[in-house]
């Protein structure tokens, strides 16, 4: 309806001729209806491709990839090479998972070139973050797909396994059999490695005391045979089949329950760095805990923290967070940073060094725990909640991003819905100033309808593109929203051209180096309004060209820029339009999944000197504002038109 209203309004505004059909009878009207629709479609097509329309609203173009290069886009990241890394893994496809068919696509939006990258593990629903060297850290993924209760044939559950031997680790491969006191046998579905027990000796001489604390880990086990006798809700002790003597008392298992209930997705420990130069995955140290649906966020100093996710038994991790050291390529558990979050929490590094949790998340976890936005003081491991956010019971499937340059320290929360497959959704757009004396969310505006799964993209002109989403859970009821907007830093929402491809669950959007925006993915549950026909994964891409690329006589050009620059220094950039340049931005490339993008941020650069053909640009000194890594450098003119970006590595 918005497109029809806009078409009529603009036809009148631009004085385009309008075909008027007068029909004497209802019969004639019915007979001519297809012709009228055809004329309307033609007029709309001509209008949206007119220069007047595109200057005001921009333009969308669908991209069809070769059939053998189409993947289910679950994750997308813009590499410093300018190529898109599109990770599917098994792509939310049980058949692909069972066959071990895992996919990753490399797509060059500048040339259209495509290639498939060998994908060694099922990275479906892992997490990712960029490192200072430009590599993309990818951790976690899928060990096992969910099994609905009606399909469960054998009792199963999580097994807590302990090792009380302080001298030796214990490796228990997949297929290890655990035997209950009643002789019932259960088989593990994944490898498990237990480190030696922790041994502490205090005192001296006869007063020496030694304390041994068992190491432990969790693994999913399944009854060896069918039968109701394998189900129990009591704690049961298990021995490991084949382990005898003293060892049998040192390594053992405990379960709280084994049931025929629904079994959730399960995570993996696999971790890789994707090298954008070699264009390959490089295996690095495993996570301490298996994770599915985790968030990875950068830390001051270049490390990365992994937060939340479902573990190897399908349970939400109870605050066991860990950090990655790029120098040693290893993960370390951080009991000093134990905090619970629902899966895929939106975390942002602030100017003061804290992480800010906006409340946005992708689900999994109780509705009364870990849902409130808060500052996370990493030095003291304290969460400080912030007030003011509307519709706090509808933060699942919302999206969050910075609003304007990161120096402004403003975060916005857009849309969202109730927990799980709730029918509730909100169009709320609230903003918080993290630097305010008493930070609190305040209403900015509202979208015209409730919107789950919105995609947010920061543009070089300081506006944010809001596109895609659906009113209902996973697009139910054919509720995909074929509308898009830009939000400016004053909170004003402006219509832009309507996308033609729906984007809901498992969709992504990213800024490209030429100033356009790529959208991809979408995984609706159904494809009919009655919710009776299973949905299909959307494999078409669509590119949005913002209005700023249709204005004026051209765009600024960067003819030379340094490949690298230090924080707190000045870089000289050559441009024939230097005299007309009014601003400069460093924009960190996106790495997005499930509406969660901890990477994108725009950094405003002061122009400190200007010549006929060049500019001196000052880079902020604070690492918390400009984390080390690769950025796109844009120059802007008075109309907000950006140059094509140059890649610059900040260190």
UniProtKB/TrEMBL annotation:
Transmembrane portions of the chain: none
Any one of the GO BP annotations: carbohydrate metabolic process
Domain GlxA-like beta barrel intervals: 154-256
Cross-referenced SUPFAM superfamilies: E set domains, Galactose oxidase, central domain
CDD domains found in the cross-reference section: E_set_GO_C (cd02851)
Domain Galactose oxidase-like Early set: 555-650
InterPro entries assigned: Gal_Oxase/kelch_b-propeller, Gal_Oxidase_central_sf, GlxA-like_b-barrel, GO-like_E_set, Ig-like_fold, Ig_E-set
Name of the protein in its database record: DUF1929 domain-containing protein
Lineage: Bacteria, Bacillati, Actinomycetota, Actinomycetes, Pseudonocardiales
């Amino acid at each position: 309806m918005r497109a029809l209203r806009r078409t009529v309004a603009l036809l009148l505004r631009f004085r385009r001729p309008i075909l008027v059909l007068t029909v004497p009878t209802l019969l004639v009207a019915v007979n001519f209806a297809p012709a009228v629709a055809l004329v309307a479609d033609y007029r709309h097509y001509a209008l949206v491709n007119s220069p007047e329309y595109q200057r005001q609203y921009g333009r969308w173009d669908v991209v069809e990839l070769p059939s053998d290069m189409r993947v289910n886009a679950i994750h997308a990241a813009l590499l410093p090479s300018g190529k898109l890394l599109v990770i599917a893994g098994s792509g939310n496809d049980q058949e692909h998972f069972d066959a071990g068919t895992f996919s990753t696509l490399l797509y060059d939006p500048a040339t259209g070139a495509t290639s498939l990258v060998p994908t060694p593990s099922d990275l479906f629903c892992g997490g990712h973050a960029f490192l200072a060297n430009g590599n993309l850290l990818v951790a976690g993924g899928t060990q096992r797909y969910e099994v609905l209760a009606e399909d469960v044939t054998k009792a199963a559950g999580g097994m807590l396994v302990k090792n009380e031997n302080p001298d030796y680790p214990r490796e228990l491969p997949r297929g290890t059999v655990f035997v209950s006191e009643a002789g019932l046998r259960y088989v593990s579905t994944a490898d498990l490695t237990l480190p030696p027990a922790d041994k502490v000796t205090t005192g001296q001489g006869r007063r020496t005391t030694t304390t041994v604390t068992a190491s432990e880990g969790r693994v999913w086990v399944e009854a060896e045979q069918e039968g109701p006798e394998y189900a129990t809700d009591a704690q049961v002790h298990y021995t490991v089949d084949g382990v005898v003597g003293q060892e049998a008392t040192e390594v053992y298992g405990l379960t709280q329950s084994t049931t025929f209930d629904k079994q959730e997705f399960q995570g993996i420990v696999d971790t890789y760095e994707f090298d954008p130069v070699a264009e390959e995955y490089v295996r690095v140290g495993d996570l301490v805990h298996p994770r599915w649906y985790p968030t990875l966020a950068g830390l001051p100093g270049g490390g990365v923290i992994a937060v939340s996710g479902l573990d190897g038994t399908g349970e939400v991790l109870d605050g066991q967070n860990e950090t990655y050291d790029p120098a040693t390529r290893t993960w370390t558990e951080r009991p000093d940073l134990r905090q619970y979050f629902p899966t895929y929490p939106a975390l942002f590094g602030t100017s003061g060094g804290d992480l800010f949790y906006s409340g946005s998340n992708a689900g999994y976890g109780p509705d009364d725990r870990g849902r409130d936005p808060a500052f996370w003081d990493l030095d003291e491991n304290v969460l400080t909640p912030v007030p003011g956010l509307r519709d706090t019971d509808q933060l699942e499937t919302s999206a969050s991003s910075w609003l304007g340059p990161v120096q402004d320290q403003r975060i916005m929360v857009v849309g969202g819905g109730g927990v799980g497959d709730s029918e509730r959704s909100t169009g709320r757009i609230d903003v918080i100033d993290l630097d305010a004396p008493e930070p609190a969310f305040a209403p900015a505006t509202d979208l015209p309808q409730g919107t789950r799964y919105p995609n947010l993209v920061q543009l070089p002109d300081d506006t944010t593109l809001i596109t895609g989403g659906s009113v209902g859970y996973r697009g139910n009821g054919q509720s995909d929203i074929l509308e898009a907007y830009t939000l400016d830093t004053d909170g004003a929402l402006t219509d832009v051209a309507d996308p033609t491809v729906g984007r809901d669950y498992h969709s992504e959007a990213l800024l490209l180096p030429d100033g356009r925006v790529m959208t991809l993915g979408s995984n609706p549950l159904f494809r009919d309004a009655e919710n009776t026909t299973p949905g299909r994964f959307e494999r078409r891409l669509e590119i949005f060209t913002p209005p700023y690329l249709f204005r004026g006589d051209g765009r600024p050009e960067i003819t030379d820029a340094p490949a690298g620059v230090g924080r707190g220094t000045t870089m000289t950039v050559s441009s024939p339009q230097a005299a007309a340049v009014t601003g400069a931005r460093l924009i960190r490339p996106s790495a997005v999944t499930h509406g969660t993008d901890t990477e994108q941020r725009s950094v405003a650069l002061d122009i400190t000197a200007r010549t006929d053909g060049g500019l001196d640009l000052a880079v902020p000194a604070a690492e918390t504002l400009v984390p080390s890594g690769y950025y796109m450098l844009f120059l802007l003119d008075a109309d907000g038109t950006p140059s094509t970006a140059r890649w610059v590595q900040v260190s």
